[in-house]
Design a protein that fits this description.
Layout: H1 4-9, H2 15-25, H3 28-33, E1 41-45, E2 51-53, H4 54-70, E3 73-78, E4 85-86, E5 94-102, E6 113-121, E7 134-140, E8 144-149, E9 154-159, E10 165-169, E11 179-182, H5 191-202, H6 213-223, E12 225-229, H7 242-255, E13 259-261, E14 281-284, H8 286-298
Parallel strand pairs: 3-5, 11-12
Antiparallel strand pairs: 1-2, 3-4, 5-6, 6-7, 7-8, 8-9, 9-10, 12-14, 13-14
Helix pairs in contact: 5-8
Bound molecules: 6-O-phosphono-beta-D-fructofuranose and magnesium ion (MG).
Residues 102-103, 105, 183, 211-213, 239-240, 245 line the site of 6-O-phosphono-beta-D-fructofuranose.
Length: 300
């Protein structure tokens, strides 16, 4: 079975980037081990005023400490940090963007959650999604699965009983499926989004929405369809974050033949204004992204 390292050795990635990818991927082991002691809330809020789960904080502190010590990384933009964390003395020149524990409201109910990561060359964390060198996520479900792209297609690996990531699927492509899931409160949705969800229902699509972006996206990547977190009345920017969530997941979607949009434009072409830049999100099968954009356009 091909290991993560053997796969990386077949790509054009430079050695320090391969080392950094492996270092991050294998943090899934201590993060998974920390679930049992970090089930409560931490009693703190992140920059968004959201209550932090203990594991959010644990995973954030842990990854920042490991990457800081590694010397590979000049900057980290984390969903759990108000400002970019900088390591001016690092010998490496990478910038990492991350949501250390996505879907954290599901920790206490033991449903799948994950860690979302993007890596840029050049030490600047506020770049366009299309300029990512690497996008990856580790999904903590019944198995620990790593989904990764370094720009040459999407690959998934599973952590085996020896603690090694082994290849599960190569060249993953998003099928043109009909699953759909939308965040937000229905009576706060805008008319274009209402129309789009009606269209999904008319096409015979099934609703799938868990409350964990990374887990819901993994399902869309496998079966096809769309994940949405839309703009809402009084909340034109939606809920999710461009830098830590939309860009890495969108980059994977695009590499798998899918797309990501805010309803009007390809999100990967948007330059982040600040670390906590929020955006409406539509991500998944290409034809459904086109359909979502058409519905939004009709109400503009
Ligand atoms: O990180 C934001 C997030 O937790 C996503 O993982 C998830 O899809 C969404 O928010 C859930 O939001 P809500 O509870 O409003 O459905
Ligand atoms: Mg998140």
């Amino acid at each position: 079975m091909k290991t993560l390292r053997q796969y990386l050795d077949e790509t054009a990635c430079e050695e320090p980037l391969k080392d950094l990818i492996e270092l991050i991927a294998y943090q899934s082991i201590p993060i998974r081990d920390a679930f049992i002691d970090n089930q409560s809330y931490a009693g703190t809020e992140n920059t968004y005023g959201e209550e932090q789960a203990a594991l959010d904080k644990w995973a954030d502190d842990h990854i920042i400490s490991v990457l800081g010590k590694s010397g590979f990384v000049k900057a980290i933009a984390s969903e759990e940090q108000a400002d970019i964390v900088r390591f001016p003395d690092a010998f490496g020149d990478y910038a990492v963007v991350m949501d250390p524990l996505d879907g954290s409201s599901l920790i206490q109910v033991n449903l799948a959650v994950g860690t979302i990561v993007g890596i840029y060359r050049g030490g600047d964390a506020l770049q366009k999604g299309e300029d990512l060198a690497v996008a990856m996520y580790m999904l903590y479900g019944p198995m620990t699965v790593l989904t990764i792209t370094v720009g040459g297609g999407v690959y998934t690996f599973a952590l085996d009983s020896d603690g090694i990531f082994v290849l599960l699927k190569e060249n993953v492509r998003i099928p043109e499926g009909t699953l759909f899931g939308s965040g937000g409160i229905r009576n706060e949705w805008l008319p274009g989004h209402h129309d789009f969800i009606s269209l999904c229902e008319q096409k015979g699509g099934k609703l799938r929405y868990s409350g964990s972006f990374v887990a819901d996206f993994h399902q869309i990547l496998t079966y096809g369809g769309i994940y949405c977190y839309p703009a809402a009345r009084g909340k034109p920017e939606g809920k999710l974050r461009l830098v830590f969530e939309a860009n890495p997941i969108g980059f994977i979607a695009k590499q798998a033949g899918g797309a990501i949009s805010d309803g009007t434009q390809d999100l990967l072409t948007v330059l982040p204004e600040k670390p906590d830049h929020r955006t409406p999100i539509y991500v998944g099968s290409k034809s459904l992204i086109d359909a979502a954009e058409s519905c939004m356009k009709e109400h503009n």
